[in-house]
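Forwarding the complex inputs:
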Amino acid sequence: MEAGHCANAWLAVLKEIQNSDGGWGYHEDTQSRVEPTCWALSALCSDRDFGPDSPVLDKARRYLLANQRSDGSWTASPEMTTGNWVTSLACAVLAHEAEAQGAISTGLAWLCQDYPFDSSPWMRFLHNFRRDSHISSHNDSYRGWGWTPRTSSWVEPTAFALLAMQEFKSSQLPPVASRRRELAVRLLYDRMCPGGGWNCGNPRVYGVPGGALVLPTSWALIALRSSSEHKSKALSLAWLEAEIPKINSPGSLAVASMCLAAYGKKLPATKLNLHACSLENLLEDGTHVLAWVCLALNPSRTWPARIGG
Amino acid sequence: MNIRNRQLIPSFQRPPSRVLIRKMADYEHELETLMYESLREFSLPVLGKTVLLKPNLVGLDPLGIMNTHPAVIAATRASFLRLGAERVLVGDGPAMDRDTHAILESVHLDEFIGKLGREFCDLNLDEVEKVVLETRASKLKELFLPKTVLGVDFLVSMPKLKTHHWAGVTLSLKNMFGIVPGSCYGWPKNVLHWAGIDRSILDINAAARPDFAIVDGILGMEGNGPIQGTPKAARVLILGNDPVAVDATACRVMGLRPEKVPYLARAGTMLGHVNPTKIQQLGESVASVRMPFAVLREFQQLVA
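Prediction (whole assembly, two chains):
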């Protein structure tokens, strides 16, 4: 099957497995969650044949708006009462919805006020006296975003927050956003693994270089797409290009493909073909993986806005 | 009775625990037979029940040095089915890499166990349920834990025998970090680090206490574990009906003092037995299989 046909067939499956509340679960017939809903919505919105007024999209947007907390954040699961990293995804996917502008403003404000605690002035002061301060070699003056509020900066949530902000004009963002973006970009470069690429955010532990991983590397590179040229970007892109032929999972290959497309690079030969993946396996890996694959196979994708752009 | 309905019994009210040590030279010979015979010694109440095996799948591991070996997972699953379990699920929520599919491919789990399909649960993505942490060992008051874990009848923690650069050792209790869902708490599950690793281990194990533990020590890891350490062939399997006692025994096999591992010392008062007089040792003696594991400078106080 050709890539385009596959993507169309799988987008139809995405539509079919939407829950009645408008959201998607990580797996078919499971409770709706914000992350898979955002990725499914992104994939469907990126489809040229799918009108913006589609009831599927409308229900999905309503699910997201209904599940925003009063402080502007979104929670990973409906039972949770504290917002977290999925707030970036929700802001990004709702960015161009006229109805959602109020929700987005509060979401972006929440994001910009969510500072990791590990890099607070107090923690940086205490760091000088800690016996284990030699374990990692991070520069704690840089600040990104954590998976959960008031913890530590990590690569993927930082990349997602940067991606979310890239969907907006400066005038739409809180005044502090510009400084936060600057610090976050520096943090990503600081956390790069010595040989290029990123893992979760530990480039060295006890002086031993950490190995990079495909997903964090791809998200970080996509987030850095619009930042100025930097030798670390080139090194990391080279790491990813060398790694792609070895990728053995659809999720990583899909995101890596989107990353290369964002940099105008051709996908090297791979041992796995996305369009040859079985739908059953994709659904087992999760709705988000199915959505990533649909996005990767869709040359006209529109999310994130700057991809391919 | 499933995991969510269990009452916590303090250690002093618990009967002695049973721990079995088996020598096993490699992953290739008679592993399933040995596992089945070993499990039979415990008369486990699994007939017609749903069992969840929780291996340690920490990351991509093409060399088979950091994750619970798939041969051990396969042998355990087959053995529990032979013992009459109705379903034997396998589940984990890897902490450092969210691409669980890639991790499973890297260890070739399918080749050992066949296609698991929905019998494998990525605990990072499972539906969750709020669990109030009654032990309050850490600052966490509650955790959202996978419904699959809370709903099974019998939970088996299956770690690899490893030292750990933050916790000293990572065995069946630390392995339970993997039930905390990444979709809620991230990759890594950093909120647990902020709440204190040692204390979080206690809270998680009190909230979802494994019924049984099987440590894959055929090939372990010493030094800067759990990922960047050095492989160490200890050639043992350590099994038991008390994860605390199993971990304490595993420490002794590694030449370490379990009572000096902060979380194990406290677990010895609330979750199981560390004291060797409360552990009925079966199979090989600790002395006959002891193989000192190197630890980082920061953990020299653990060395016996």
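The domain at 15-302 of chain B is CATH 3.40.50 (Rossmann fold).
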